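Suppose you are handed only two things: the residues of a chain and a line of SMILES describing S-adenosylmethionine. What would the bound structure be? This form records exactly that question and the answer produced for it, so the two can be stored side by side and reused later without any lookup.

QUESTION INPUTS
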Amino acid sequence: MVSAPDRRQYAPATERNRDPILKVLQQVLPPQGTILEIASGTGQHAIYFAPALAPRLWLPSEFDPELQASILAWRHRHPAANLMAPIVLDAGDRPWSIEAGTLPPDCTAADLQREPISAIIAINLIHIAPWSVALGLLAGASRLLPSGGILYLYGPFIEPDKPLTPSNLAFHQSLQFRNPAWGLRDLGILQAAAEAEGLQLQQVSSMPANNLSVVLRK
Ligand SMILES: C[S@@+](CC[C@H](N)C(=O)[O-])C[C@H]1O[C@@H](n2cnc3c(N)ncnc32)[C@H](O)[C@@H]1O
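ANSWER OUTPUT
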């Protein structure tokens, strides 16, 4: 018998940041519903967070087919009853695929009606994508979240009136070198864009390695 090739990809940072992020998620996520993870990457966060945050359902998503395969492979090795298969979702799209009826194979529209999306999370996305993707994320969260629902963002940001640390400045410059449309986002500008979509800044927490947890509430 030939076994399927292991499509798991590995991002070492996920093992460093997952526990501090989980601590914040446990405090800020609504106690039930479906958590839609945007830009799930390798899937390592999804397999770690889903069982720790049950009974909420965890719905990973990606726009990169190789990473969708990685999420499926990690989920195959670490199944959890509340962890769904990933869906294809480009955060810059309007509407999002899930609004146009794309669901994971193990989930029906009725399942999602029983456990509606109560929070959306995006870890290390908006600085590694054009600003239009951040705007698409805010607009999608505004359309999908119920009143009181949470949009959680994690990553490095530019904070008003605070100089960037040398490591974040170097990271910002390296991102802009790779793609001039990428780079650390200004928290004040993000807050204004979120407010224009009906999302209020609820909490900003310092995280290890000069990152922030940013919690927005619909
Ligand atoms: C630095 S990785 C972070 C992945 C994962 N969240 C983590 O922390 O390990 C950035 C991710 O954003 C995804 N991405 C970039 N642009 C996107 C978009 N427009 N919509 C959805 N995902 C996107 C990439 O495929 C990649 O998985």
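WHAT STANDS OUT: Residues 12-28 form the longest helix (17 residues). Residues 12-217 form a domain with the Rossmann fold fold (CATH 3.40.50.150).
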